[in-house]
Design a protein that fits this description.
Low-confidence stretches: 195-200
Helix content: 55-70%
Distance between the termini: 88 Å
Order of helices and strands: HHHHHHEE
Number of helices: 6
Mean pLDDT: 82
Radius of gyration: 34 Å
Strand content: under 5%
Oligomer: single chain
Length: 229
């Protein structure tokens, strides 16, 4: 309709060394905060907080529980949409970037879940703690630390999955380049004419290469000419 179509047969965009370096630095930047006591990633978690707050009124239309859970779903929705967009476009570097952002959210969510009982984190606009309400409703408030640990494990496994994806793309990209690279053409093999034998010797198969190494004295036309004294 708008002159744009998405095709799964479209080749992946080329993944270069600058892409890998940038993604590695971004992952290390996130990991440096993930191992901290306060894993708040500047700028990135501020955006996550904005999407978190926007998710509450949006998902509240699907019920009370979804309204409380909507903040967490909201901060996962935007990077997930980015992953889908770049998957359709076959842009490996951007897909990996959105995937790192998506799994980074699990560190932030784990921090929020672990605070369900102590409630030390400041809440935007006050009100009740999302995960205190949810875990109490589900009867697992006493397992908040275990749930938070599992969420951190999901984040690390996601980072590992991104690394595996990038390695797969690099291997597949090199294989595609080797297939597309043109091979050097060899000149066609011609018959040798020998006046003394009165016939042309046919092309010799490669597995019978020794037949082509006939002495020069048997064929005057191939013999090296020497000037007479």
């Amino acid at each position: 309709m708008f002159g744009y179509s998405i095709s799964w047969d479209k080749p992946w965009s080329k993944l270069g060394v600058p892409h890998l370096v940038g993604l590695a630095l971004f992952a290390l930047f996130i990991a440096s905060y993930a191992t901290d006591a306060d894993p708040w990633v500047p700028i990135l978690d501020s955006a996550n907080l904005a999407f978190h707050e926007a998710g509450h009124p949006f998902y509240a239309a699907f019920g009370d529980t979804m309204g409380w859970l909507g903040g967490t779903i909201g901060q996962l929705t935007f990077p997930f949409i980015g992953m889908l967009v770049f998957l359709y476009r076959k842009h490996a570097a951007s897909l990996a970037m959105c995937a790192l952002w998506y799994f980074q959210n699990f560190f932030n969510i784990a921090r929020y879940v672990a605070d369900a009982q102590v409630q030390e984190l400041p809440l935007v606009g006050g009100g009740q703690h999302d995960w205190t309400y949810l875990l109490t409703k589900w009867g697992v408030l006493h397992k908040e630390m275990q749930i938070a640990s599992n969420l951190r494990l999901v984040a690390w496994l996601g980072f590992f999955a991104v690394a595996v994806f990038l390695a797969w793309r690099m291997v597949a990209q090199r294989q595609d380049e080797s297939v597309r690279r043109p091979r050097p053409s060899r000149p066609p093999r011609t018959a040798h004419h020998c006046p003394t034998r009165g016939r042309a010797s046919p092309s010799v198969p490669l597995n019978q290469w020794w037949l082509a190494r006939r002495p020069a004295w048997r064929c005057p036309s191939r013999a090296r000419s020497h000037p007479k004294p």
